[in-house]
Design goal:
Elements: E1 2-15, E2 19-26, E3 30-36, E4 55-63, E5 66-76, H1 85-101, H2 109-123, H3 129-140, E6 161-164, E7 169-172, E8 179-181, H4 183-193, H5 200-218, H6 225-232
Antiparallel strand pairs: 1-2, 1-4, 2-3, 4-5, 6-7, 6-8
The protein binds zinc ion.
Zinc ion is lined by residues 150, 152-153, 155, 171-172, 175.
């Protein structure tokens, strides 16, 4: 049986001499792996669709538990990412985060929209795209982060504060046992959650905190995040 679905390549691995296996974030069936036959041969028609960050309409043949890609129409390959090493690592953080967060049975559509939007922003050089994506993706997976009133006492946290990993929220210094967090981090995350942006030190600190939050919630974190942080700010 064949079906078509919009999908983004999260991972691609060589398989045998001429084939690849791609891990796709699909709109219709969440995350799945599919074989792409012959795509490593010179001039292979579907080679483009086996590359990381390829966003396309895929035609998939389903046979038992196995999927094979039989066709693809490109929407965007985000090719300009390869010209900016930091943006490339940022994009890897996006696909790795989606890969970690997508559990079996989770709807893929909203996460796909969010990931494709983030890759587009990274291609345009927007430095806070990964912060925005992490917040959206964590929320879709059931681990929302908030940055408003302290959930314990209702005051707006300021100065020294904490981030409570259980609640996914910033609290006053005295109100929780959470990890110490800076006002800069709070303001950056609050801005992005409110539809705004963040930059520089705020962006870095937000990414560091969200990386720690990932680890607590999923026992994993995007493996490219460390290198991405170093590329954004070599002195840190
Ligand atoms: Zn409080």
């Amino acid at each position: 049986m064949e079906f078509t679905t919009d999908a983004l390549v999260l991972r691609s691995a060589d398989y045998g001499e001429n084939d690849r296996i791609v891990t796709l974030l699909t709109a219709k069936r969440g995350k799945l792996s599919a074989v792409m036959k012959g795509v490593k041969k010179a001039g292979a028609r579907l080679n483009f669709a086996s590359r990381p960050f390829c966003f396309a309409e895929y035609v998939l043949a389903e046979k038992g538990p196995r999927y094979t890609v039989t066709g693809a129409s490109l929407y965007d390959g985000f090719f300009s990412l390869s010209e900016d090493i930091a943006a490339l690592y940022g994009a890897a953080c996006v696909t790795q985060a989606a890969d970690i967060l997508l559990y079996e049975g989770m709807a893929g559509g909203p996460l796909l929209v969010s990931a494709v939007h983030a890759l587009g922003e990274l291609s345009e050089g927007k430095g806070d795209a990964v912060v925005r994506f992490f917040l959206e993706a964590l929320s879709l997976a059931g681990y929302p982060v908030t940055a408003g009133e302290c959930p314990v006492c209702g005051a707006i946290p300021h100065g020294r504060m904490r981030f409570d990993m259980d609640r996914g929220a910033f609290t006053c210094d005295a109100c929780s046992e959470g990890v110490p967090a800076s006002e800069t981090t709070y303001l950056a995350i609050s801005s992005v959650l409110g539809g705004g942006s963040c930059a520089g030190d705020g962006c870095l600190r937000a990414l560091r905190l969200l990386g720690a939050y990932f680890l607590v919630k999923t026992d994993s974190r995007p493996q490219s995040l460390g290198e991405y942080l170093r590329l954004l700010h070599p002195l840190h």
